[in-house]
Amino acid sequence: MSNLVNSINLNKTPNHIAIIMDGNGRWAKGKGMQRVFGHRNALTAVREAVDGASDIGTKYITLYAFSTENWNRPKLEVDALMSLLISSLKKELPDFQKNGIRVNSIGNIEQLPSNAQKVLLNVINQTKHNTTITLTFALSYGAREEIVNAIKNISKKVVNKEIDIEKIDEKIINNHLYTFNLPDVDLMIRTSGEQRISNFLLWQMAYAELYFTEVLWPDFRKEHLFNAIIDYQNRERRFGKTSEQIDKNE
Ligand code: FPP
């Protein structure tokens, strides 16, 4: 493990990592257990990912905890996920404070049960001055819903003459997304072997490197994160330029 960390160039770490935490259900099924057992055993992986990102100096980590589509899951599973969210936020608060973790959320938070909203807003408020890393939970989040929401809000401002149509640019759109206070995603990791984006941060991942691993989320540990980072560092991010331009730092 220490070898793995030594292989990481700390001057070239991703500033923003986004993770699709997939495979909890299959992990539980593989053990002959109910799906909820997988979600309950996902918290160690969450801690390892956040600690690992923090260790290498990453400033933003965003976790896809509950999608707009997840509301269609059986009520029992939705309720269990909400309870898990509430209990783990409460339980982790002292560690968030100790480790300088600022908690943030993106998504249509008003759709969450009111007790979940309350706990979430309290943790966000209590951790707002922490500066080591920003941990964003995507909750009731869908990228298309986010874009629709942004368009509605921009349109209202156009009607009210607060924004001139000709002035609408990428920056204005960015400022109306749930992620207005987050930088673009540099690295997106998805576990469990699925190779899809699944309506996650579509705008923000325009230039992200994508990394897929077969590991099921409850088994995800720092070493898996570090392997993803090493893979990321071996890629050349060109942002539409040529290799020669990148080499010359143009
Ligand atoms: C995907 O696995 C996981 C989810 C839909 C929920 C993610 C939730 C957690 C990791 C729980 C902890 C998070 C918080 C914020 C407390 P899946 O159920 O789709 O697995 P499958 O594809 O194997 O069925």
TrEMBL record:
Signal sequence extent: none
Record PROSITE patterns? UPP_SYNTHASE
Domain of life, per the record? Answer: Bacteria
Question: What does the record note about the cofactor?
Answer: Binds 2 magnesium ions per subunit.
Task: Indicate whether Metal-binding appears among the record's keywords.
Answer: yes
Known EC number: 2.5.1.-
State the needed cofactors, names only. Answer: Mg(2+)
Active site, renumbered:
22, 70
Which positions, given as ranges, span the membrane?
Answer: none
Q: Which PANTHER family match?
A: DEHYDRODOLICHYL DIPHOSPHATE SYNTHASE 2 (PTHR10291:SF0), DEHYDRODOLICHYL DIPHOSPHATE SYNTHASE FAMILY MEMBER (PTHR10291)
Q: List the HAMAP family hit by this protein, alphabetically.
A: ISPT (MF_01139)
Q: What is this protein called?
A: Isoprenyl transferase
Q: Which organism is it from?
A: Tenacibaculum geojense
